[in-house]
TrEMBL record:
Matches recorded under PANTHER family: BIFUNCTIONAL 3-DEHYDROQUINATE DEHYDRATASE_SHIKIMATE DEHYDROGENASE, CHLOROPLASTIC, SHIKIMATE DEHYDROGENASE
Domain Quinate/shikimate 5-dehydrogenase/glutamyl-tRNA reductase per the UniProt entry, residue ranges: 117-193
CDD domains listed in its UniProt record: NAD_bind_Shikimate_DH
Binding partners and assembly: Homodimer.
GO molecular function: NADP binding; shikimate 3-dehydrogenase (NADP+) activity
Domain of life: Bacteria
Protein species of origin: Candidatus Accumulibacter proximus
Catalytic residues as annotated in Swiss-Prot or TrEMBL: K66 (proton acceptor)
GO terms under cellular component: cytosol
Identification of the protein by name: Shikimate dehydrogenase (NADP(+))
Lineage of origin: Bacteria, Pseudomonadati, Pseudomonadota, Betaproteobacteria, Candidatus Accumulibacter
Record carries keyword Amino-acid biosynthesis: yes
Pfam name, any one: SDH_C
EC number(s) on file: 1.1.1.25
NCBIfam families, sorted: aroE, PRK00258.1-2
Length: 279
């Protein structure tokens, strides 16, 4: 019987993860089955238990279960602890390991696929929810000249910065305080794009030659990327690369081999997915 993996989410019908992992498995000649499981909002833990009892070897976790998944795991990696969220579960007998590959996925997409070095750059991270929490520590690890977290609810940005505060280069504020500042890299980690909305950014935050990155992906440009283009950002990038890279890191954790992500990204681009969150 094939080894079983899945993604838990609600909703999960939009998920590209089954297609991504099927492509990785074919490429790496791994005999595995990967399905999407819609868990009830109040039934995530039971759904995981059932999956493990049925021989499940590992799982991806997406909205809205990434935080609850921390409680399911008996052991957390450091990056999952800092993020306070788990997107990858490994079932080893009765032991459950929780990891978070989102930050890795973002950094790998930026530095490897897009040749965008973060070190020494001025970086603006929009949002202070789960998506921002997953990437803030890996971003800081790359030693940007400055990292500013901006959020609609400024207090949440301050809380997030305090959670990881270990660098003078880290700042936090609301959107109005961004007026007069500009950045080389602006990352949208809010869920605004999901609702077709734009975070209330002041004009002028995109420095000449800057890269605008929306963690969301989908058909056409998100309102954030349209705004960034009008404001003079030189490069506009959606989150498809991050999605595939975080999945590749999960695949490496589960199967011990790293798939080539380039053909898988090309396959997904050709399929033109509908707007969606990561995973
Ligand atoms: P997730 O886990 O996906 O990050 P979340 O914890 O609900 O979800 O966080 C959503 C983030 O998107 C928050 O930073 C939220 O801002 P608030 O903390 O002020 O709610 C942000 N967000 C959602 N819609 C937004 C919008 N229209 N404009 C700006 N920020 C928005």
């Amino acid at each position: 019987m094939s080894d079983r993996y899945c993604v838990f989410g609600n909703p999960v019908g939009h998920s590209r993860s089954p297609a991504i992992h099927a492509a990785f498995a074919a490429q790496c000649r791994q005999d595995l089955m990967y399905e999407a499981i819609l868990a009830p909002r109040d039934g995530f833990v039971d759904a995981v238990r059932r999956f493990v009892a049925g021989g499940g070897r590992g799982a991806s976790v997406t909205v809205p279960f990434k935080e609850e998944a921390c409680l399911v795991a008996k052991r957390l990696t450091d990056r999952a602890k800092i993020a306070g969220a788990v997107n990858t579960l490994v079932f080893e007998g009765s032991a459950v390991l929780g990891d978070n590959t989102d930050g890795y996925g973002l950094l790998r997409d930026l530095t490897h696929n897009l040749s965008c070095q973060v070190t020494g750059k001025r970086v603006l991270l929009l949002g202070a929810g789960g998506a921002a929490r997953g990437v803030i520590a890996p971003l800081l690890d790359t030693q940007p000249a400055a990292l500013v977290v901006a959020n609609r609810t400024a207090a949440r940005a301050h809380d997030l910065a305090q959670r990881v505060s270990r660098a003078d280069s880290l700042g936090a504020c609301g959107y109005p305080q961004l007026a007069g500042q500009s950045f080389d890299l602006v990352i949208n980690a809010t869920s605004a794009s999901l609702g077709g909305k734009l975070p209330p950014l002041p004009e002028g935050v995109f420095a000449a030659g800057s890269l605008a990155y929306d963690m969301m992906y989908g058909q056409g440009r998100t309102p954030f990327l349209v705004f960034a283009g009008r404001q003079g950002a030189a490069r506009l990038v959606d989150g498809l690369g991050m999605l595939v890279e975080q999945a590749a890191e999960a695949f490496r954790i589960w199967r011990g081999m790293r798939p080539d992500t380039t053909p898988v990204m090309a396959m997904l681009r050709a399929a033109e997915p509908a707007p969606s969150a990561t995973q």
